[in-house]
Amino acid sequence: MSAAGSLLAAVPAASVLLLTVALRSRAVDAVAPLRLAVVRSALLTGVYAVLVVELLGAVHALTRPAFLGAWLLFLVAAATAVVLRRRSNRPVPPPAATPRPVPVGAVVSGGSPDPSVEPPATRTDAAPTQTPRAPSGRLAVAVDAWRTAGRGERLLVGTIAGLVLVELLVALLAEPNNFDSQTYHLPKVEHWVAQGDLDFWPTAIHRQVTIPPGAEYLLLHLRLLTGGDQLHNLVQWAAGVVCLLVAARVTAQLGGGRRAQLFTAFVLATTPMVVLQATSTQTDLVCAAWVTCAATLVLDGLRRRTGWGTLLGLGAATGLTAVTKTSGLIAVGPLLVLWGLAQLRLALAGNAATSSLAAGTATPGPAASTASSAVRRPRPVGGVARTVTGSVLILLVAAVVVGPFLARVTAEFGHPLGPPRLRESIPMERHDPQSILINALRIGHTAFDTPLAPLRRAGAEVIIEGADVIGVDPQDRAITFGREIFPEPAWYPDEDRVAFPLTGALALIGAVVAVARPRRIDSEQAGPLRAYAVVVLAAVLLHTSMIKWQPWGNRLILYAVVLAVPLAGLWVDALLRRRRANPVRRSVATLAAVAVLATSALAGVLALSYGFPRRLVGSGSVFTTSDWDTRFLRRPQWADEFRWAATEVRASGARRIGLVQQNDNWEYPWWLLLRQPDGSSPELVALQSVLPERPPADPSSVDAIVCTGSQPACTKLVPAGWRFAFRGYVGYALPPGH
Length: 738
Prior knowledge:
mainly alpha; two-stranded antiparallel sheet
């Protein structure tokens, strides 16, 4: 990556920071306003990034100058918003002449209270609400918080910060080497760059066009701005940071204090799946970030009517979730139902209170007028109709974000969810209670896996025997992905399948307590706690009834884990806060909590140090492994084979190169190895296609052929008389004379 590329990549980052300043909440009672500003900034930036790709793709302008212009425009808009925000927050100078004091509540001519006089009950100091804190003031608050924090809280903060910073280092040092990214995440980006638009292309890997591309849209921005993939891992890293901040805010919204919020962030930050995905080009953390943003906005709507800005935010979160990973909607759906019910309750309560007040005060005086104003305050636009209108607005905004992609998929395959092979491979095909139960048990077994092999075997045997008793085949293809066989070990720190037994257990206990005994956590937040826990449990149940078991299913449920962790933080904090318990129980609870948190920290550190396929120490360390070998840590034997074939093809002078591959083969190395000398994309065309309306290229129309996977499949497509060579996984073919 060039120095110019680095500077250009700083433009989106600067825009996000400026937006965070500009979108800080003005409300005095806003919970964690800075984190709320992060949510707003992330959603606005995400929507802008998606729409820029869609609009520029529609006019065949997916180019570096176009993207640079779009981001410079966004940066100027963000800076302007900051300036306007600061001007609007300047204190108003006192009037030149001070009017004669009027007693509070005095009636002026016309028979109404003087509007310039504020009653004592509503008078507030103007400084904190009118004048924003200067950066030094925020720094002073942070310093004061650190000074007043206990040793345990400082240890939690230090561990979280250390993990996040080391993850950033790994994300910057490691080359993208996720398996799925080599197959379809990153090739998808390269096809867009080569084409200059978003049109589908002939391919043997249907996931390059059928899987929602929201996270890849974000990668496309970095690819065009920097000219390479050196910063691709930062998308998931940034999503992980958003998850930590927003999960902590959710904890605060549910009544958790500083320690509970730190517990939440600590448990989430040390979850091995989060640690490993934060340095990856996978998409699960991006999805989890959008889902969690939706959750925190929904919780804001439990006790106050939602403003139009928040409605737009909910629509943005819904659309971004849908365009990133459709499974995230399994959680967003129940969250929006909770929001709708809460808004209807507030609307009906407001109407009832207003009617009661009107019936009891025929001629209200000044005090009654103030009370009436207080009653009407929660109804800024009005009643049930506003809730319905808000719901429609949420869906419209979501449709704007995800609609163009769904339209392309529908036009290509006749269905918004893609071809039958996609609709039948991942979703459950049986929904009888027995099948759902076995699927849920298998998903739970994989999620809670530990290094204790006897425990894993015993649990699997119980599930398999139980399935036989109720008449369900535990390996039934209708409830099992592909040809996979249950059980499959998942304890090893691998980014695609690592289990989360500690995080899962804490979250499950917290959710159960929040549903059954919410007052044990917080007596003043019993209602919101129970409602949120019900939504989390509903999302988990819906996931297990809609998504087939698969060995790497733990990453698919990551969005639900992030949603549930605040309940874990709240429960641990409440456990340590209980003072009525006898000293022995309190001591046992404290020791147990410390042991669990210490074990969680150890799991996170080990995952970061030895996790696969990016690690700090040992074989394959990011410090000792070359860039090219890092890309092939999943399949080290392929590294030299790809280079061998690419060297022969480049030496032949071939310009148009045919691809022969199967659905799960690696395509991305060809885009790197066959790039033109000036850095432009190679002309790669598929010689096979699973898209009915996109026929493959004729083998005789290309200058060379490169193959992966099956040698017989490649041999069938090589024209007669061509020179053909194959090594292990990779092969190539050249016409006579080359």
